[in-house]
Amino acid sequence: MAFQSINPATDKLIQNYDEHSAKQSNSILNDVQNAFQEWKKTSFSERSRFMKNAATILRKNADQYARLMTEEMGKPITQSKAEIEKCAWCCEFYADNAEKFLADEMIQTDASKSYVHFEPLGVILAIMPWNFPFWQV
User: Fold this and answer.
1) In the 8-state DSSP scheme, what is residue 125?
2) Torsion angle in degrees (nearest 10) through CA of 127, 133, 136, 137
3) How confident is the model over 45-50, as a mean pLDDT?
């Protein structure tokens, strides 16, 4: 079975996408889980560099990504471009702040030591609305 991406303004076919088999899907999930086991060990400084690089790539390719959003979903091009910029800004924001947001937080209790500690969750499946394709991720 193939999925089709159709321009809502012109009804023209943009692209066909083949459905993954159960075996292919499981293989992808296994690969992603294995990658997660390595990525969770990555330092905040290295993650920050990658997030800032993502912001750079988003801005560098903003026109291409915005056109794709506009073609695939009929979103006005100005909104598409604004969405890409918002995503780039968000990448930079978390590159600069994630370490302090995720730092252990000491909590005053009767115990000798109490704190909030954050751990990566791993692979998560999300079914997301289509109208903000970059921002949702």
Assistant:
1) -
2) 90
3) 97
What band does 1 get if pLDDT is binned at 50, 70 and 90?
low
Closest CA to 134 of 78, 89, 70, 69: 69
Supply 56's token pair: 């750079």
Cα–Cα distances (Å) from 17 to 3, 55, 85, 116, 136, in that order, read 5, 27, 27, 43, 21
pTM (2 decimals)?
0.84
Cβ-based neighbour number of residue 65 at 10 Å: 20
Sorted by sequence, the CB contacts under 8 Å of residue 82 that are 6+ apart come out as none
User: DSSP of 52-98, one letter per residue?
Assistant: HHHHHHHHHTHHHHHHHHHHHH---HHHHHHHHHHHHHHHHHHHHHH
Torsion angle (degrees, nearest 10) of CA 114, 118, 124, 128: 100
pLDDT at site 23: 97
When pLDDT is averaged across residues 48-57 and rounded to a whole number, the result is: 98
